[in-house]
Fold each of these.
Amino acid sequence: MDPKPIKYDHSKHAALSAVLPFSYFSSPVYLDFFGFIREENGEQAICWHDPETNTYPRIFPPEDKTKLQNIIISRATQGDIDTIEKEKIPILEKTLAHHEYYYQTKTLLSNRGKMGQRIRQFKKENPNHKILSAYDPKKILSFYQKWKLAKPREDQSINFFAYHLNNLKKYITKEIYVEIKGELAGFAWGAKHPQNGCWVGLQLKAIYDFNGLSRLLHQERAKLFANEPFLTLGPESDNLGIKQFKEELGPSEIKEYFYIQTGTKSLPKITKTDTIFS
């Protein structure tokens, strides 16, 4: 029986995650909440718990090609799959998981096109709005509870939000809040990624009634990371409107991830001509 996985702790396991690609799913706050460490193929693998199958798939493929057999990977790119196939390792299951959206920070700082148009519209319709860099956690939670009632969310995402709210300082989170008429209308959080020049847009919640508010939040948050050229906003949502919105923001890359399971590499058949007699 495989040893029981242990909880990922970035303060202890940062060296393990340092080899992971830049992604929302390799950010310290994500790994601390969702991540586990388990022994697999003779090495420590960073994985997460899949409640549907009660398994612990790797979040990303191992760097070592000799460790690609008999594993489950929840986020493999087509390039990873090509490598596995080149190694002649069978892929027993392959399912499209989701897409991750990457941007250049300067894109979100631009006032051209729809970005600038919607922000100007928001400012015109809400001239007395306030932009703040901190807020009462109790009021943030109250706002979030009202926001989530507009559309049911999975418990896991709600728990992740609560965890992050309680650990904003731990992850050196940069915060933006927008008040309209004395009431919180939306907020956005972000944090630097361990990889140089990269940051992650972690939370953005806004009341949909205010045209342009989401774009304003994206831009104000990007100003806090003006010296970091690249960011990820994570995966698309089941909400088609959010997916369309992320595409309208002008991603520099949309990365496609597959959920895969690999098998055992077949040994080459030995023929008479391959046999060497001494």
Amino acid sequence: MLKADNGTLMAQLRTGRGLERWVERHLRILMLAPTVLILLTLTIFPSVYMFYAAVHKISPNPDLPWEFVGSGNFARLLSDGQFHVALRNTIIFTVLAVTAEFLLGLGLALLLDKYIRRLTFLKTVLMIPMMLPPIAVAITWKIIYEPQFGVLNEIMFRLGLPLQAWAGDANLAMFSIIVADVWQWTPFIFLLMLAGLASLPVEPYEAAALDGASSWRQFWDLTLPFLKPVIAIALLLRVMDALRLFDLVFILTGGGPADRTKVLSLYVYQVAYRFADTGYAAAISLFVLFATIILSTWFMKRMRLAE
């Protein structure tokens, strides 16, 4: 009886040691598994649902079955005038806003890196807009643009200039949204450019200075080529983010006036919740997704070829 108990005890010990060794070998996988499962659940289900909804006509009445339409929702994109307006506005906003943010961010980074490198407090202040929630930024600029009591029109009044409707003017609405977006996201470009400048080697600049190269020539021949990878990442991230602009437009203009600021994300929202056409909204979302993927792939290939 004692021998049997000892044999059982040894078997349990061997099993425990084997389990312990297995846990040690797979500890990293076990630690990551819960997070990976949660992320997959939160990512895969909405993606599958969106693909499935994009090929169906979904009635707002939950008692009615979904009607399979195949590529019908995607074919509607070709003849939908409102979609074409939203696409044009999105492209205009993305090009103008990202260009302005890049030029300002790079300029500020060059200025602070060369002349006021030690003023850490100033760098922190410049990054504050980027750390604010987008909804807070939108409400702040809505107050600034307020026609009667806004700060901007108060300044215009004191300077003797005509007051403007800003976000309510068809000719100024897109410009107003671009200004607000540039104010918020220029610090992002500035931060990446400043980090890139801090990592540049010193030796090529010393050699160029000895050869008599001007600061402008050093910028074009050394700084820009060295910063190309950082510039590519910064522009790619900002373009991808600009294509899904929603908060500023929704709060400042609501897509108006006269659809001058209606962008794709806002149009998806209107189609899904105002017109209750979930299938078509899913098709527009997939179009934006595939367009972003294609643009990103093309951009990265161009950057590799340029190198």
